[in-house]
Every structure is written in C-alpha cells, then in structure tokens.
Amino acid sequence: MKLRQSVFVRRRGNDSEQYASDSGNVVVEFIGLVAALLLPIVFVATSCWEVACSYFAVSSAAHAAGRAFVVTSSESDARLRVQRIEKVVMNEYGLSTRSLHSSISCSQKPCLTPGGLVTVAISRDLALSIPFFGQRHVTVWGTHSAVVDEAR
C-alpha cells in the first residue's frame, strides 16, 4: 500500500513584494476609464439638454405668439407682436433668435376674421457637435392654433 504524499509549495518572499510593481495603477486606470466613458456621456447629455431647452422655448414661443396674434386689432400689429414674443421667450431661455423661423397661416382672409383659425409655427435649427459622431443638425418646432374671438 502506497501512501499519498502531499505536496506543499512554499511561497518565497512576501506577498506584498509580488504586487509592489502594481502600485499606482488603479489611479491611472480610473483616470483612463473616466476619460473614456464619462466624457462622451457628458457631451451627449449636454446635447440632449440643448435640444430639450430649444424644444421648450420654441413650444412656449409658439403658444404665446398664437394667443397674442388673435387678440390684436390689426394684422400688421399682430405680426410685430409675434416677432417681439419670439425674442422675449428665446431670451428668457438664454437662446439666440439667429436660427429661428416662424410662419403664420390663417384659415380665412383677412387673418383676423372672427371665428377664423390662426396657426403659428416656429422652428429652430440646432448644430450639435458630438465627439466621434461629428456635427449633427436637428430641427425643433412648435405650433399653436388659436381661434379669433367672434365677439370682436
């Protein structure tokens, strides 16, 4: 009958000596992961924020402009009000009116005929720069339809 021999491996040196050459690598790896993962996420989140802010501004401007248009006494004054409202709302949101486009359509001629429907559509073009994807163009728009009061 043969007895099994146990094999014991004796470690030489201290365990800390084995890992001594790895000291400081965690910091380097963390910085690498932050740069590789967190920075693109920040760029995408910033772009999404800009689109959302532009959408809310354009939608609010269209709503306010449509309501102001139908309560004005003359069509020329109404169109001037729409332009002023666009500027005011965009300034409130901290956005420029540079790439802003608006159109006004009426269901009846002249536009302020009692019972007529006036639709104000406002759009804004955005140029978003996202790393690794280049520059992307996005258009956000808002519309609002209002009825001209019949008791004018």
Sum up the structure in keywords.
152 residues; alpha+beta; 23% strand
Task: Tell me the strand percentage band.
Answer: 15-25%
How far is the first residue's CA from the last residue's CA? Answer: 116 Å
Strand order across the largest sheet: 1-2-3
Largest sheet: 3 strands, antiparallel
Low-confidence stretches: none
Total individual domains: 1
Helix content bin:
40-55%
Q: Encode the helix/strand succession as letters.
A: HHHEEE
- Report the average pLDDT across residues: 86
Fold and architecture overview:
The protein is an alpha+beta fold and 152 residues long. The protein has one domain. The protein is built from three helices and three strands, in the order αααβββ. The protein has a three-stranded antiparallel sheet. Helix 2 packs antiparallel against helix 3. It is rod-shaped and about 85 Å long. The relative contact order is 0.15. The model has no long low-confidence stretch (mean pLDDT 86).
Present the secondary structure layout:
Elements: H1 15-18, H2 25-70, H3 75-92, E1 100-106, E2 117-130, E3 134-147
Antiparallel strand pairs: 1-2, 2-3
Helix pairs in contact: 2-3
Concise synopsis of the structure shown:
This protein is α+β, with helices and mostly antiparallel strands. The chain is built from three helices and three strands, in the order αααβββ. The protein starts with 14 loop residues before the first helix and ends in a 5-residue tail after the last strand.
